Structures are given as structure tokens and as C-alpha cells.
């Protein structure tokens, strides 16, 4: 109350957004396995996914054919979305991300259902993850991998001094 207020001139000057701003949900389509977890866990049921099964031929002769899901449609209705982030948290394959993009207003509410092409475009606005805290504990996976690599390196015989 004792400081003078500052008005941001929004259309002319873009706001300085915090690093974890929840703008819009971006889709990294290559990581999506059509597991439907995001759509099932969404409390608003605003995620629409369609897919079909495709048979992949055997990689080696005598092997068996595999089937995989192929993504046909991935859409999010932002007129229903409450930006809770549950879909991003439950995605086991890191296919959904928060993008700080916030300028996607539409004049018609039906245009707020964004298909996978539009969601893919926002993937390029997703900021890089923050650097790890230098004082943080090393992840267990990295520590285990390092111990295994050290054990393998010590088990291998080194070059003998007589060989040249």
C-alpha cells in the first residue's frame, strides 16, 4: 500500500511469467503410447483419445508378430479443463507437459477443443527442466549404475607393463 502501483502494458510488453506457469498442455506425440491414463484420471473428462491397433511384423525370422496402439486423435477441451495437472502427473511416458503459452483465447467456445496438431505446436514453447540442485542427494538409479560401472572397470584386467 505504500508503494506506487505499476501498470503492465500487456499487449505491447509481454509479462514476465514465473518458471512454473500453467498455461496450456503440450503433447509430445512420440512418447504417447495410448495408455489412456490421462483421460481416465481427468476429473473433468476433457481429454479425448482415439486409437487403433496395428500389427508389427516379426523383427527376426520365426519371431512372432507384435501389436501396438496407434494414436488417431488426441484432443483437449480447454473450455472444460480446470488446469489441475493430473494428466501431466499420471503420464508414465512423459508425453504431456505444461507450456507457459497463455494467448489462446477464441471467440467461439467450440474452437477451444484443441487437436493433437495444435498441442504438438505448443511443445516447442515448453521450457527446459530446471537444473538439479547441487546439494541434492544423487538419484538411486545413477548411484547404482555408477557402482556397477566401477565394479566392471575394476574386474577387467589392465594393460601389463611388459606389453608394448
UniProtKB/TrEMBL annotation:
Keywords of this protein's UniProt record, alphabetized?
4Fe-4S, Cell membrane, Iron, Iron-sulfur, Membrane, Metal-binding, NAD, Quinone, Repeat, Translocase, Ubiquinone
The UniProt entry, under Pfam families, shows:
Fer4
| Stretches assigned to coiled coil | none
Q: Which domain of life is it from?
A: Bacteria
Q: What is this protein called?
A: 4Fe-4S binding protein
**InterPro entries with a match to the protein in the record:** 4Fe4S_Fe-S-bd, 4Fe4S_Fe_S_CS, NADH_quinone_OxRdtase_chainI
Where in this protein does the record put region Disordered? 144-164
Sequence ranges assigned to domain 4Fe-4S ferredoxin-type in this UniProt record: 23-52, 72-101
- Transmembrane segment boundaries: none
Q: Does the keyword Membrane apply?
A: yes
Amino acid at each position: 500500500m505504500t508503494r506506487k502501483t505499476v501498470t503492465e502494458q500487456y499487449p505491447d510488453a509481454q509479462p514476465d511469467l514465473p518458471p512454473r506457469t500453467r498455461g496450456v498442455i503440450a503433447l509430445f506425440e512420440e512418447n504417447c503410447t495410448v495408455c489412456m491414463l490421462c483421460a481416465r484420471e481427468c476429473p473433468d473428462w476433457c481429454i479425448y483419445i482415439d486409437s487403433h491397433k496395428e500389427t508389427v511384423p516379426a523383427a527376426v525370422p520365426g519371431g512372432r508378430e507384435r501389436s501396438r496402439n496407434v494414436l488417431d486423435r488426441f484432443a483437449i477441451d480447454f473450455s472444460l479443463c480446470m488446469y489441475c495437472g493430473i494428466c501431466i502427473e499420471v503420464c508414465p511416458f512423459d508425453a504431456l507437459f505444461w507450456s507457459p503459452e497463455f494467448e489462446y483465447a477464441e471467440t467461439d467456445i467450440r474452437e477451444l477443443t484443441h487437436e493433437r496438431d495444435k498441442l504438438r505446436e505448443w511443445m516447442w514453447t515448453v521450457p527446459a527442466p530446471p537444473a538439479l540442485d547441487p546439494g541434492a542427494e544423487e538419484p538411486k538409479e545413477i548411484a547404482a549404475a555408477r557402482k556397477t560401472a566401477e565394479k566392471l572397470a575394476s574386474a577387467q584386467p589392465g594393460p601389463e607393463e611388459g606389453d608394448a
